Amino acid sequence: MLGAMDGMKRDKGQMKTDVDRIGERVQRPWGAWTLLEAGTGYKVKRLEVRPGKRLSLQKHFCRSEHWVVVQGIARVTNGDRVFSLETNQWTFIPLGAVHRLENPDVRPLVVIEVQSGSELRETDIVRLEDDFGRSESGEGRVESGVSRDESRVLKSEIRNS
């Protein structure tokens, strides 16, 4: 059951809403993302990955993603495949797939990410590995708006699909 705090997340002791703000730029240890567009069932972001940096090895319970490289070279982990993409190349990350985006180059990497799914919260993430200390051992850290029990059920469903 969803509580009164649904849609909220804690960040260093402060409450933040999970509300979309078009044009908002969010800094991350690997670079930044900017929200370009959002609507029912989709979000479009511009991801900027600094040279030599990479995002968490992760998966999502509620969304799939399309990545289109618009500048630079990307190293992509998508399920059990690891491959490179250059400008104007793309990949689809299915719901539940383990994935990672890396910038192996000395130039910045810019990717347009299109998310689609039933829940598009920043907290729909399980980090399996992370260069910045944001994951735990085992199954990874769940940062979702669902309870631990619901999370276990969702993990089981993903494994069995």
At a glance:
This protein is mainly beta. The chain contains one helix and 14 strands.
| SSE-based structural type | mainly beta
User: Which term fits the overall shape?
Assistant: globular
Number of helices: 1
> What would you report as the Rg, rounded to the nearest angstrom?
15 Å
SSE topology string: EEEEEEEEEEEEEEH
Mean pLDDT: 81
Report low-confidence residues grouped into runs of 5 or more. Answer: 1-17, 137-161
Query: Termini distance?
Result: 25 Å
Describe the structure.
The protein is mainly β and 161 residues long. Helix content is 8%, strand content 46%. The chain has a six-stranded antiparallel β-sheet, with no helix packed on it. A three-stranded antiparallel β-sheet has the order 6-13-14, with no helix packed on it. The N terminus and C terminus are likely disordered.
What attributes does this structure have?
single chain; 161 residues; mainly beta; six-stranded antiparallel sheet; three-stranded antiparallel sheet; 1 helix; globular; disordered N terminus; disordered C terminus
Strand and helix map with partners:
Blueprint: E1 8-11, E2 14-17, E3 25-28, E4 31-39, E5 42-49, E6 57-59, E7 63-71, E8 74-78, E9 81-85, E10 90-93, E11 99-102, E12 109-117, E13 126-129, E14 141-142, H1 148-160
Antiparallel strand pairs: 1-2, 3-4, 4-5, 5-12, 6-13, 7-10, 7-12, 8-9, 8-11, 13-14
